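Thanks for the sequence, V.! I ran KAT2A acetyltransferase right away. Repeating your input here for the record:
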Amino acid sequence: QANDACKCNGWKNPNPPTAPRMDLQQPVTNLSEPCRSCGHALGNSCGTSRAGRAVLIPRSHCGFLSGTADHVSHLENVSEEEINRLLGMVVDVENLFMSVHKEEDTDTKQVYFYLFKLLRKCILQMSQPVVEGSLGSPPFEKPNIEQGVLNFVQYKFSHLPPKERQTMYELSKMFLLCLNYWKLETPSQFRQRSQNDDVATYKVNYTRWLCYCHVPQSCDSLPRYETTHVFGRSLLKSIFTVTRRQLLEKFRVEKDKLVPEKRTLILTHFPKFLSMLEEEIYGENSPIWEADFTVPAAEGAQLVSRPAAVSTVTVPTTPLFSKKLSSSSSAASLDTSTPEPLPGKKRKLPESLTLEDAKRIRVMGDIPMELVNEVMLTITDPAAMLGPETSLLSANAARDETARLEERRGIIEFHVIGNSLSQKSNKKILMWLVGLQNVFSHQLPRMPKEYITRLVFDPKHKTLALIKDGRVIGGICFRMFPTQGFTEIVFCAVTSNEQVKVRAGRREMGTHMCGFSKDIKVPKSRYLGYIKDYEGATLMECELNPRIPYTELSHIIKKQKEIIKKLIERKQAQIRKVYPGLTCFKEGVRQIPIESVPGIRESWQGVWQEGSELKDPDQLYNMLKNLLAQIKTHPSAWPFMEPVKKSEAPDYYEIIRFPIDLKTMTERLKNRYYVTKKLFIADLQRIITNCREYNPPDSDYCKCANTLEKFFYFKLKEGGLIDK
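Predicted structure:
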């Protein structure tokens, strides 16, 4: 019976009814049945909709989708697409509800609560969410940040050659990407470092950013805009100084994860790019913010006109997080990958690389590929590619091969599946999801079944399902955070009665997950707030390289071991070669050059080079001693005379792994460490490299390094130690 005073809140019942087993077919809910929370009828008295159809809605959610006692009668003629939209809003409301309780900042909490009430109201009224009040509608400024930055590139760099100009354009793309996913400081943090008259304006912009840019990243019900598209110079002036410092620090901390080409670009050119941009942001007469900004066609005609709006990409080495218990939320990472080619055009190789170089960058000491290919042709017996077994291979080699064979024969299959609220779900996919929910529930009895069900069917989560004979026997449930550069593993289990019979498949999944460690290398700021912390749970990390096929790892290692074994055999055959004795002394010859002795050149391969004679040790010592003395007396050598003191640079030895200085080189020279000129030149170059890696490019130290480098290379050429 209808009761206008009913305030059913069944969706938030602290003691919900026991959930039915998911593996049993659930009857379609009839509208005449009572709500399990308040006891009122779900719909009208006839029990069916006026359209003559039954409505399948979880009875525990019925109170949230209605504000009257006729709980779902207002949904009788609503399309399935609209129902899915409303259910999506329910998910977003629950996420906002959690955010309100988790957030500590007062201003941010108020915005979360406002959006929570807005979406709840839209669900009840079945309307579209519209942010009301004095915030206005996007865009809030013209020109926007993106246009201003592109104007800056044209204004400052249009005179450069095409290749250098394109480099500046890629730096601007990277900066815009960072801004679109950067978390802004709260008004209270801004107030501590700014003038009072700026705080009110920043608070308005911060609220706009939360409502239109940040929260919609994780709440699909709200319209989302890119920060660089809807804001302009006003917001950029407020955040640039802090963002620039945090951004450069982030790159500096994570520089080891960058590919070498990008590391030079980011650590050397990006700081200078930001310094020049800063002048245009705060300069009163900068033309880049004018609505009618133009560049003469002759100067700017060749600038690539691709849109700078950038999408997220997978980070080159992607960390995975795993917990024995848990999961949740969303976020932001930086595009440091190679620029994408223009639509319809193939990606071009760098000018300095040939096609063969692109396949494999060669380094000194590499074994010639011709020799490797020749050796591989001699390897015909796969069973022979073993060598001494390590713990890794003995544990994984046979089972990996068995799993690969079973997968190849179709006995077991792997599928990445997930639920969707925007598309009609495939019946097979839904059955697999139900099967996964059962496997996780049985194998993880300490986890609440409702929690497992919610995550398995959450559209933001995906599951790698292990299928045998069309049914689920195991899986790994995970959630990706592409903007943060990591993936969280939530559940991993295999059904108990298959753990023996399908051991290969189970082990294959175990191999997928090998490499997890308690040593977390990802900065805490990247995952804090995105992964829930549970009592008794252990956070672990596994870093994956996209260039490594992990399912073939043991097979690859076997092959590498056999190649090395064959190469060693060849080398040993050369070493054991017996050369004929010398007969020249019987003929009266008293002295011969050492290199004319048969076998000497072959045994010194790598040290002895064709066309050059082995230097006399004393001659080399005196030459290097004279050169080092000249370097030490050079006016620009003062920063490198002695080892860096920890008191002057506390983090120096954390960043620089192989420190070197002129004092250390002097001691090495006295101890006859430099038996070849290459060792001496390598230490000189490392002094310069370390300086550039630790110090900003425009610092006095880097200027000294540049000058000293030119000087000692001039001296090396002058002394004949390197080719002119």
